[in-house]
Amino acid sequence: MKIFVVGDSTLASFNDQYYYPRYGYATMLHHYFNEDVKIINNALSGRSSKSYILDKEYKDTFDNLKKGDYLLIGFGHNDEKEDDFLRFSDARLPLSDERSFKYSIYHYYVEPALKIGATPIISTPVVRIDPKDIYEGNIIHDTKNGDYANALIELGKELNITVIDLTTPTKELYKNIKYNNAIYHHAMTAGIKINNKVVADPNSVDKTHLNCYGAKYVAYYFVEGLLNSNLDLKKYLINNIKEPTIENDLYVNPNYVYKEYIKPDLNKYIPNDNFKINSKDIYGTAFGQFNDSSDLYAYESNNKFIVGTKGENGRVVASSDAYCFVFKEVDANLNFKMTADAKIIKFKGTRQSAFGLQLRDDIYINSTYKDTIASNYVCAGLITSDASTNIIYSRKATTEIDKEPNTLNEFYKENEEAHFELERIGQRISIKVIFRNKEYIKHFYDFDLTRIDNKYMYIGLCASKALIEYNNIYFEITGTAKAA
User: Domains (ranges, CATH) in the chain?
Assistant: First the structure.
């Protein structure tokens, strides 16, 4: 017998480099079921009940779901984001209204499962942790657009479908143990060195996403709800189910690498002539493994920005980067949009060359130009391999570059032009590139850009092994980013 799981990041699996990595609670359900049950976790970070249907995992789920199987449905965190039309659904509206949260849950998940002969189970969203220990409003998913947990409970009653309430028990637990203890149920991106020992850094806590201990605890609450239901599924639970403990179920990521990062004081930055910028709150720099520093450029001239190198100096490879960069510092709590046009001034036709509009985790302004820097970022840009070009790329997990599968079987050329757009709305980063009259679009959901610097992001114009002219620059703060 199989349990298929669809939902958002609070159920999904991750591959973090965090001190306490993220775990969705569906990854811990197997601890409570016997060997006759197989759990297929297709939950995806950053999705809502509305947006998930666009992913291949949605089709895969219903292609493989069979009569007698179960479908666990866990959405809500991202449906409540009214500033994001791709994900928002309204919890105030009735089932009959296609704009409603109830409509999405029923028509996209419950109804197809019932037609197959599978049994749907709806779970309400876990709460976020509250530093004030009040637990109201968005923290518990009770928003101006309705109460998302209550909407699911109502839907269950309307349809006679099992709903397992995870909102109430997580709220009561966190209120009882208080914030300073509740944080140890959640992911922490970083460690901090105290007396030469690296320990968890409470300032890096992720107020939404669970760690392994927190995920197992929520899975335990799910099982408690299952035991109180009428579902035959509870017959497959193991005997002697025990409540998780922090001593037995919380562990540090064995692959976590502590990196001491001191945020640069940009107010005291005095750049050399190659990095001089006239515009306010915009800075020029270069960092990473360059062969030398003689031809690095990131400066402003006649309302245009010249970025990159004239020769083959630089590298963008799996192990490290070498970028020239014109950038703005942006508070990680804000939404924003930036666009730019680019023209290739110099390019000798070589691999490991890249340029574009980049949003990254950290910034370096006093690099030795020999430093190994391989930080997380997304780039609305172009990158070359041995004899080809890919449009839109990103770096994650410190030693990996992901290129979109849209290979052009040649390098870009001098005097060619491109248009770049990057927009951040909460946990969604949307990218558009127009090159050779073709449009390329990519949405990144819940991409980790606060692992090293958890207060700021850095957005700007980058280039390596090419010299690029950027113009028609537009930047706008569009609001406050909502929690995941």
Answer: 2-249 (3.40.50.1110), 266-480 (2.60.120.560)
